[in-house]
Design goal:
By secondary structure, the protein is mainly α. Helices cover 70% and strands 0% of the residues. The protein is built from 13 helices and no strands. The longest helix has 39 residues, at 282-320.
Length: 321
């Protein structure tokens, strides 16, 4: 009897990745062009092209009339940073941004946590808190301009409650005008932060709070160690929007004070409009606009790199998964 033949080794199977047909790849590219093309054209036309034009104008001394003939290079930028008013305007924007984080953020978080509880009339309270944000900046500025005028509503209320010593020239005192504007900003924009944080609180699972309570955690410990960490991505988004809005502040300042008195409330945007449109220094105003854009752009990149990168990566991971 012949010996059985040895078993033949199994051939290694090589799995090659399926190759997408050329027709399918061409169809995908066509879909990308059709879907992204209009958006890219609009983005280029309304964002990139104006930025390029502003940079080009900033290199000339131009009053807005006639051709661009007086090339000055970077002199407009040197004049801007060399002027005390513009440096003060940058400082005012920074002060507003810092005050927004230090004061508005705790207020928004505290009121949002309060309105997240089951309270009688909670829907009405939310509407009242959010109502100022619905008003336009112009209406808000006019309302507060009337209330803050000498012997106006604010002064009469302070005298009525026995605090007449606190009455000031709210919009005419260089020492307090910037902080007066910040109070108006807080009244106007606080509701947006509260609604944003309330939306973030909806994503906190109630099971985590119940588990913390079962473990003996107090309400403050639950809020500090469970709720606030989960609310972190929403808080970071709010900080980003608040800082960018503070750097671009214009409407309230322009209507209420025009940057005065004595440039005590001037911001970069109001300085830009004052020189670019009122004084017809369009080349210089374009340089200021480029500086404002650069500051906001650099902040956005740095904040994205060090603060929002983890949140964005987590969102992308969840979307892919």
């Amino acid at each position: 009897m012949a010996a059985p033949a040895p078993p033949r080794p199994l051939a290694r199977t090589v799995h090659s990745a399926p190759r997408r047909p050329a027709r399918r790849r061409g169809r995908t590219r066509l879909e990308l062009v059709l879907l992204l093309g209009p958006a890219l054209v609009l983005f280029a036309g309304f964002v990139l092209v104006p930025i390029g034009i502003a940079v080009y104008y900033s290199l000339y001394s131009w009053n807005g009339f006639g051709p661009l003939t007086d090339f000055v290079g970077l002199q407009n930028y040197a004049d801007a940073f060399g002027g005390a008013v513009f440096r003060g305007a940058i400082w005012h924007n920074v002060v507003i941004a810092v005050l927004s984080i230090v004061i508005q953020l705790p207020l928004s978080v505290g009121i949002a946590l309060l309105l997240d509880r089951k309270l009688k009339g909670r829907a009405f309270l939310r509407m009242v808190v959010f109502a100022p944000y619905v008003l336009s900046e112009a209406i808000t500025a006019v309302i507060w301009l009337l209330m803050l005028q000498p012997n106006g509503f604010v002064d009469e209320v302070l005298r009525g409650v026995g605090l007449g010593g606190l009455v000031h020239q709210w919009l005419a005192d260089p020492g307090i005008v910037l902080y007066t504007l910040f109070v108006v900003m807080t009244w106007k924009y606080l509701g947006f932060g509260i609604i944003l944080l309330l939306a973030g609180l909806q994503g906190v699972p109630p099971e985590l709070r119940e588990a913390a309570a079962l473990d003996g955690a107090t309400a403050w410990q639950t809020t500090r160690h469970v709720v606030l960490p989960l609310l972190g991505p929403t808080i970071r988004i709010w900080i980003f929007l608040s800082v960018i809005g503070s750097l671009q502040l214009f409407d309230l300042v322009w209507i209420m004070t025009l940057g005065g008195p004595a440039n005590a409330s001037t911001t970069m945007a109001s300085y830009l409009v004052d020189h670019g449109f009122k004084r017809y220094e369009f080349g210089f105003g374009s340089a200021v606009a480029v500086v404002l854009f650069a500051i906001c752009f650099v902040f956005a990149l740095v904040y994205q790199r060090f603060a929002l990168r983890r949140d964005t990566a987590g969102a992308l991971t969840r979307a892919v998964g």
